[in-house]
Amino acid sequence: MITVRVSPRISPAFGEVKVAIDRIDQICGALEARWPEVHERLCPSHGGDGEGKKRRSFAVLVNGENMRFLDGWETELKDGDEVYIMPVIAGG
Amino acid sequence: MARGYMGKILNVNLTTGDLEEEVLDEKLCRDYVGGYGIGVKLLYDRMPAGIDPLGLNNILGLLTGPLTGTPAVIGSRFSAVAKSPKTGGWGDANCGGYFGPRLKFAGFDGLLFSGVAHTPVYLLVDEGKAELLDAADLWGLGVTPMEDLLKERHGRDVEICSIGPAGEMLSLTAAIMNDKERAAARSGLGAVMGSKKLKAVVVRGKMRVPVHDREELRGLRKRILKQAAGAFDDFHKYGTCGITHDSALSGDSPVKNWGGAGTVDFPSEMAVRISDEAVIGLEDYKPYGCWGCPIACGGKLAQREGEFALELNDGVGHKPEYETLCMFGTNLLNDDLASIVKINEICNNLGLDTISVGATIGYVIECYENGLLGKEQTDGLEMTWGNAEAIVAMTEKIGRREGCGDMLADGIRVAWEKLGRIGTEYAVHVDGEEVPAHDPRYTPGLATTYLLTATPGRHTQGGELLEPVGFRFPDKDKYEYTGWADTHQKLVASMEVCNAAGLCMFGYLSYPIQAIPEQLMAVTGWDFDMEEVYEVGMRIYTMRHAFNLREGINPLTRNVPGRLVGDPPLTEGNVRGVTVDYETMIKEFLELAGWDLHTTLPSASSLRELGMEFLIDDIESLDVQTV
To answer: Residue B309 sits in a domain of what CATH number?
Structure first.
């Protein structure tokens, strides 16, 4: 199982969620039913602007490592991995 | 006169004591909007080059924009302007709170202070009438006790802008404060105010800011608040402290004086202690909002017990912003939240720029850890990473210029010089201005903002850090360094207008960018669209640059700290391997702007396009250093 956490700025109530996925891009499907509001923020409709916004608006860390150092959305996951999803900044 | 303006500024000659009202020029406002936009044009016209920023001939301005004090979202801001004693060039700082709107309700769009008072004074502006009053009993007071005293004297309905002891002692890290704990902190303008022996400005008023179409503005506000609702919720709940943990991990934050990596040196279990839920979970936490703000991203909290108990306001202080949490937390490997809350109280009361002081302490710590400084030079303080007690004690010393604090109170560049230029690699500043807590290795476009903008090392001057709603970034990787010039120009230009108009940038981030010209039209009655916003913004940007050029400053000659741009790159963390090709980005921006690639002098044609023909002769006569 993979542990998924999200930034409190996405959902303060999310906590830690265990999901059975083996690739990052399966997260959207895993979240859709149980966490629709998180799914809506993270996973706009595929194709066109939706994919671009998904890429740009969120950073995804796997065991602390940004997925851009791995295989991006196609990064494979193994049992015990932790995925953390956060928005790309805001100011301050 | 267009609406949105009260129509006049007050010129205060502190040497003679004369107060003179001046009708605000309508064309000036049309061309430069307000705030530091009109400020830079006025100061360029009224001050020669080469004056001493802490001398008689500098002019300090406190200026609002046309949207300040109106129902625009969010019309709460004012600018402070002057020649900066930190950089020797253009200086400005931006602040929220309540002072800006109240200044307009008192009848003025701005105040310009010239000369130097013979003894400390403060200015009282009350429903259109102004007078200079003796500040002998205020001089030396911290911001909080002084504001309390002034409110007792003049009434609870006044708003106050002031300096603390740091500004009085001409510290270049001094800020201009308002509402006790809001700060116009950058460019060393607190020192300028102190050099004029101007302790405070107290304003009271109930005049209404004229608005061209109040119904339209009401409708816009309703629409904007509905559109921005989700984004506002995050900000309301956490404010900027909400990003501290994430920024530490992502590579956005400087870690260990810009030389470390969050995931290694300040991992999640540390970062979470100074972020989001930890901060708003402090005792008696309540949101605080600036004037008219629907977000209320600020906060107040209590810390009445323990080693770092707050001493003022019955133990209640403002929530530290992200910049403070990072520069005294992540940057110094300090995960002791209570110490940072205490530091925030110290900085606010003494009137200090938390970015600059946190950065300066980072330099000191790294020198100490590497044996370049010893306890004999730090007044016995063990300046090691994460040593909360020492960091708090050093902050107080800097604020009071006590002991070694005297050497550090003017920031990194001055400290580096006084210490014999030790630890150059650790001295992260651009032209004397310490760099805020957003790393160009994470957001490469920030390198252009930090290195090129008239006020270097500033994250609130636009750039790729903040993607406005309704604005399309090119669909490319941020580490592809070509092809960003048009985007960067539009971002910096729109931020110039946002700042000059008196709008808070957190509104700008949350609602569609088109709401900026829409609100300007509704308030002023002038036609605005996004193309006009970009043109006016570039005009302001160019005018600020021209001020510097006249002072002999070519931004291409600024020092570029290696750590800022990944030279050499980090080997760990989420921005490892990144070396920012800032030269390519800057070159493309200069080409687009029509500025010379070696001198940054704007071409005559680029000035004509912006309606700035008056600058052509000045620019052509300049002799700046070529690279």
So the answer is: 1.10.569.10
Does the residue B497 lie in any domain?
no
Dihedral over Cα of B398, B401, B407, B409: its sign: positive
Domain assignment present for residue B189? The answer is yes
Enumerate residues 6+ apart whose C-beta is below 8 A from B237: A12, B280
- The pair phi, psi for residue B539, each rounded to 5°, is -65, -45
Q: Which chain B positions have a beta carbon within 8 Å of A56's beta carbon? A: 467, 473
Q: Which candidate from B243, B250, B460 shows the least CB-CB separation from A90?
A: B243
A→B contacts (Cβ < 8 Å), by residue, are 7-9, 12, 52, 56, 59, 61, 64-66, 69, 84, 86-92
Say how many domains are in chain B. 2
User: Which chain B residue has the Cα nearest residue A69?
Assistant: B574
Please give the Cα distance from B22 to B321 (Å, whole number). 37
Same domain, B189 and B45: yes
Instruction: Give yes or no: residues B155 and B296 share one domain.
Output: no
Give the integer Cα–Cα distance in Å for B499 and B490.
14
pLDDT tens per residue across span B553-589: 999 999 999 999 999 999 999 999 999 999 999 999 9
Residue numbers in A near B234 (CB within 8 A): 9, 90
The SS3 call for residue B426 is helix
Is residue B337 included in any domain, yes or no? yes
Residues B203 and B127: beta-carbon distance below 8 Å:
no
B86 and B199 share a domain? yes
Q: Which residues of A touch B246 (CB under 8 A)?
A: 7, 9, 59, 86-87, 89
Residue of chain A nearest B236, judged by CA positions: A9
Cβ contact B251–A66 (<8 Å): yes
Q: Say which residues have a Cβ less than 8 Å from residue B64's Cβ, sequence separation at least 6.
A: B34, B35, B77, B78, B79, B100, B101, B103, B104, B109, B110, B502
- What's the CATH code of the domain at B35? 3.60.9.10
pTM above 0.90, yes or no: yes
The CATH architecture assigned to A2-87 reads Roll (3.10)
Task: Give ∠ CA B300-B108-B205 in degrees, rounded to 5.
Answer: 55
Q: Is the interface score ipTM higher than 0.90?
A: no
Q: Domain residues for B36?
A: 8-204
Q: What is the Cα–Cα distance from A51 to B561, expressed in whole angstroms?
A: 36
Closest to B41 measured CA to CA, from B588, B596, B536: B536
Residues B290 and B200 in one domain: no
Say whether pLDDT at B507 is over 60.
yes
Regarding whether B176 and B28 lie in a shared domain, the answer is: yes
Single residue among B402, B427, B452 that ends a domain in this structure = B427
Q: Check residue A47 and give its pLDDT.
A: 37
The domain boundary residue, chosen from B204, B232, B249: B204
Contact A91 B234 (CB under 8 A): no
Comparing CB atoms, the residue among A61, A69, A91 nearest residue B509 is A91
B344: which 2 tokens? Answer: 């925030």
pLDDT at B470: 82
State whether B293 and B184 are in the same domain. no
